[in-house]
Amino acid sequence: MNIFSPNLFRQQFPLIESHDQSLIEKDDFMPSLIYFDNAATTQKPRQVIDCQQDYYRNFNANVHRASHQLSSKATFAFEKARSLVQGFIGAKSVKEIIWTKGATESINIVVQSLARNTLLPGDEIVLCVSEHHANIVPWQIVAEQTGAVIKVIPITEHGYIDIDEIENIISDKTKYVACAHISNVLGRINPIEQVIAKAKAVGAISVIDGTQAVAHFSVNVQSLDCDFYVFSAHKMYGPTGIGVLYGKKKHLESMPPYQGGGEMIKTVSFTQATTFNSLPFKFEAGTPNIAGVIAFAESINFLSPLLTDVSNSYGLFEKKLVNYCYQALANIAQVKFIVGGSPDIGVIAFTLTGHHNHDIAMSLDTHGIAIRSGHHCAMPLMTHLKIDGCLRVSLAAYNTVAEIDYFIDCLKNILLEGTIEQTNKQVKEEVLLELSAKEMVDIITLFSRTKGWDSRHREIMLLGKKLPRLDKALRDENTLISGCESLAWIKAEHSVQGLYSFTADSDAKIIRGLLVIVLAAFNNQTAQQIHQFDINDYFEKLGLMQHLSPSRGNGVLAIVEQIKIMAK
Ligand code: PMP
């Protein structure tokens, strides 16, 4: 019997269900949300949300410390969650399960607590080129601290770790091998068994980043025989801010604590050496994320039966969705997948010839479709593939074939609009040259007439068309805005009256539009006015705050920062 039913599964996610509901009420064919950003974080099922609330409502107390019933109840649930995770990944002992904030913190613990104390100058750390920054930067930091050297395994043309290359790269000098079970951009199940075996053969420690794997199939750390395995709850229908460091007991026991504080000690004294608690508590200083742990257990209760079900109906449905979406994308002429072949899990990365990734993602957003564009925290992979970013569709089992159809239709329409635009470009450019960014608009009045993200997005795109192009010769590293994911350039001029005027350009249409909006606020202002200007308030007035809040890091902040640096 199949224990997975796509409809029933979908209905368990309140955020998605509420959008489905509004769709029925509006009698409208346009869905208000299609969430295709599951590799970033999954939505949460009702039972996980309820479980977290239940803790706060009914048994909120600190764990391990107090001798009262409430604390006992919280401690019981908290430690039961640990046993559940132990079973979920097949760890030998509950002591091998350390709670962390997430995969990032788990990796940092291994790096700073173990690698930093064992690496010697010239020792080698082996990573794969497709790693997430969370599995690169901590190693770069420790390499700097110890004099160790990082070696990189390439990927095959289909996006898998290149096993043939590991023979040349993993050697007697290798002390750590850290790689992802599945890359968050490529969606391929890496042959980590072979990587782990090779690491073992040379006496190196293996650290596996399982963040993108654990929601899709059962993992058994004992069969894998890896030294460490890390993951985050929020990518497996659980809460944010909680994750796991699995480590073999012998390693965890040899490691000094990562942080000091309450809970991780046995005795503390000013006259004698402080002694530390046993595993796993040695690594859990301070009050932990109790609600997160308890709700995480509920997400495992939710997911585990689906992963272990003999019919594999959940896995097969995920596979059906990814194949369908991959094929539909493959039928679009402009789509270029970043590596060959279809992915193993619902993570599909591609670019669109002649279009900027951000423009496509923002346009899809106006249709309620959430996909991701950019470097996906894998800049070395982008460099390796000679791209500056890509689009990523990442699916979960609550997604549907109908959603994929709608996404493909929208994408085709966006591409078609782009083609019509190209044809008319010549005519338009002549008209546009008459408009300067300064004269153009009272931006606030313009936006006050618009309603909804869809029409505001259209206005931004129209404004972008009015921005005069910056001379190609001026688009260089001196004018490049660093921190903006798209390429964007800005140049300042300073008049004798002390007023600044800026000219700017970008390769992304949406950024060109945003530049017009930003420049309208800063052009012909003094340095003092520029520094005092409240950009958040401005975006609030424009009704763009939730879409373009500078803190979202979509490049606006980088542009504003750059302007402030130039206006001295
Ligand atoms: N590794 C991979 C493969 C990931 O996809 C992510 C999250 N995008 C991380 C590590 C980091 O996870 P977290 O931000 O939850 O610590």
From TrEMBL:
Fe-S metabolism associated domain boundaries: 446-564
Cofactor: pyridoxal 5'-phosphate
EC number(s) per entry: 2.8.1.7
Enzyme class: transferase
Annotated ranges, domain Aminotransferase class V: 34-407
Catalysis: reaction(s): (sulfur carrier)-H + L-cysteine = (sulfur carrier)-SH + L-alanine
InterPro entries the record matches: Aminotrans_V_dom, Aminotrans_V_PyrdxlP_BS, Cys_dSase_SufS, Fe-S_metab-assoc_dom, PyrdxlP-dep_Trfase, PyrdxlP-dep_Trfase_major, PyrdxlP-dep_Trfase_small
Keyword terms: Pyridoxal phosphate, Transferase
Annotated GO MF terms: cysteine desulfurase activity; pyridoxal phosphate binding
GO biological process: cysteine metabolic process
Superkingdom, natural source: Bacteria
Gene3D superfamilies hit by this protein: 3.90.1010.10, Aspartate Aminotransferase, domain 1, Type I PLP-dependent aspartate aminotransferase-like (Major domain)
Family of the protein in this entry: Belongs to the class-V pyridoxal-phosphate-dependent aminotransferase family. Csd subfamily.
Name recorded for this polypeptide: cysteine desulfurase
Organism this protein belongs to: Colwellia demingiae
Gene: sufS
